[in-house]
Amino acid sequence: MTIALVENLPVELDDVTGALMGAVTTEFQQLMSWDGEGRQLVFPRDHPLLGGPECLVTGCDKVVFHTKDHGLCVGCAKRLKASGQGLEEFVSTVKRHWRSIGVSNCRVSECGRPSKTSRAKLCSAHLGQRKSLGLSVEEFIHHPSVKSLPGFGPCEVAACPRSRDGHSRRYCMAHYQRRLLEVHKGSTLDEETWRLTTPAIAQAGVVSLLGLTDRVVVEILYGLQERIAAGIRHKDHHVRPFCDLVRARQIGSLAELDVSGLSKMNAALAKGFLKHVLRWTMSPETERHKDTWNGAAFGMTGSLHFEKISQPWLLRATQDWAVDDAPRHRGTNPRGAMQTQINCIVRLSESLRLNRPDKGIDPRLLGRDDIVAFLNRMRYLVQQGEVAAARHVTDVRHLRRMLLRMRSLGLTQPDQPLHGLPEQFTLRPEDIPDDPEDTAAGRDIPPEVMRQLCDELDALGAGGLQARTAVELLMDTGRRPDEICKLPLDCLERDGDGEPVLVYDNRKALRNGRRLPIAKATAALIIEQQQRVRARFPRHRGQRPRTAADTCREPSRHEAPDRQLARRPPPSVGRLPAGLSRPHRGRGRRRARHEDAALRQGEDLPLRLPPHLCTASRRCWDPRRRPQGLDGPSPTRHYTALLQGQREAPTRSGRACHSDAVRPARQTSLAAGQGRP
């Protein structure tokens, strides 16, 4: 293998490298004590993400990274274990007798040579002169006959910032001895390659970037800056081996580094640095024409994959649809929903490739027969067990909506990807299959388990009243965890009859100010939490404090720790009742919240809402209106039978709670047959 050698030459940066270096802020360069000529990263010890406390042993300059070592560095912790002493006795009696790492300059003013040892503090020439004069170091450096000496030049190892040890040697003392040792062991690496690829002498808190190309240096600087800004901790003994690896492979950019076979830490650093470098040059305009999109360009995580769409016209049309659809999603990460819809196009592309002689390359030759072939193939995949019945219905609905959306975007116009696509190439409402019957047991929590969980609510109080309050509100109202954790302080109001009403924001559907009638016992929980929040933050008069948020946070930091609720350890409630099997999949999360709330309020059977109320549109169901694209049993009869079967159930307070407590407030008028509110 031929290695392209890299030397530390003062060349001008190219446009991309120079622009990336301009993105490295002056504050970060000052934080890392960065010098463009010396190229040394100095990790500040007082920084929470880059440093750590110093070792307790006097004279030890190492950093403590592990709390298990009780304030000692790794080396001192090993010496403590070998000594058999206690920690206090070891720290007070141990004497530093081990060798130090690093070099210092000769103490003679303006002397350009390094000191021979850390104890001598003088270079070899001045050390011999001091011994001949018989003076101490302090007396010697002020003696009139002492003169400064010029240095021998830098060590010729590309990564080494030290000076040479003499006129006849090309390296510093450490690298000179290292080279002799490798030659003695039979190293076949030529000296020219060795001096360009061998790492610098490790020094605590310092990482050398000498010997790396300008592009790699800038990529590491910018990646490290962005990762620190993201709150990721970095240690010098992790970054140093990564830089040594890149130097040994002599690559021109981190994009050329093959991460397969690397250690877990080196692979993580390579991917992390390169991710931020790619994001710096990324934009929706640069990503939209690629077969795989980086979601960061569109404000989401992960990637969107289009590479399985084999027809160029269909690929471009799907990408145009995705560009239009991405900003319409309100969730924090819509990548999963978008990829699901893109996969519908992938199935259509696969059907065209298998059923047409031209593999579907020319859109002008397509027609109704190709749609029928696609529908038949989907039914075949369902029968073979490759596609679930529910996925079959969802994919056909998504595909019909996407094809209509592509036409409405003008993609059938001249110079557009769908130009010439026949009108017959579309899905009709009757092509959408019926919803499969929900014969599975679903994921309903059995009533016996719900009662057992309710009996053990006192165990949650041991971990904090906030946790129990949040859990009880979840059980009583059926709301989402983030909706409960982000309740404002004034979330409790009264209706015209004086009954309590919960006011919350449905951020997922962008429907704020929702009003949900609740039981008096549930209102009492909210009032108690309001009192605790006001007692903890008496000076706060705004509406931003959260009632169910962890009160360890200041309310003015407009952030609700809903994830902290999920990380709390669950209490032990014993074994499941005998005869209960593991619940099956098949019940949506939205329906699960409503049914569990019904169980919490004392229902013998879960209240099953019709699937039309659980769609992504979150629109209220009107019995007089049939939804578009729905073909099958009459949803009106389903909903009417449901309303007739609803009944009132007692709550913990004994007051009858109507079904409004387990569905959005705008649907309350449906029980009276009034349709939309």
Major sheet: size, sense and barrel closure?
3 strands, antiparallel
**Shape, per Cα inertia axes:** extended
Average pLDDT, rounded to a whole number, is 78
Number of strands: 9
- The percent of residues in helical segments reads 25-40%
Task: Estimate the strand proportion.
Answer: under 5%
Low-confidence stretches are 1-11, 549-561, 581-587, 598-677
Structural class determined from secondary elements: mainly alpha
In what order do the strands lie side by side in the largest sheet? 5-6-7
Q: Whole-Å distance between the termini?
A: 75 Å
- Radius of gyration equals 35 Å
How does this structure look, described?
- The longest helix is centred in the middle third of the chain and has 21 residues, at 335-355.
- Strand 3 and strand 4 form a beta hairpin.
- The chain contains 24 helices and nine strands.
- The strands form four sheets. A three-stranded antiparallel beta sheet has the order 5-6-7, with helices on one face. The protein has a two-stranded antiparallel sheet with strand order 1-2.
- The chain is mainly α.
Helix and strand topology:
Elements: H1 15-22, H2 26-31, E1 40-42, H3 74-83, H4 87-93, H5 124-133, H6 137-141, H7 173-184, H8 191-197, E2 206-208, H9 214-229, H10 236-249, H11 264-280, H12 284-287, E3 292-294, E4 303-305, H13 312-325, H14 335-355, H15 368-383, H16 389-408, H17 447-455, H18 458-461, H19 465-477, H20 481-485, E5 492-494, E6 500-506, E7 511-517, H21 520-536, H22 562-567, H23 589-600, H24 635-645, E8 649-650, E9 656-657
Antiparallel strand pairs: 1-2, 3-4, 5-6, 6-7, 8-9
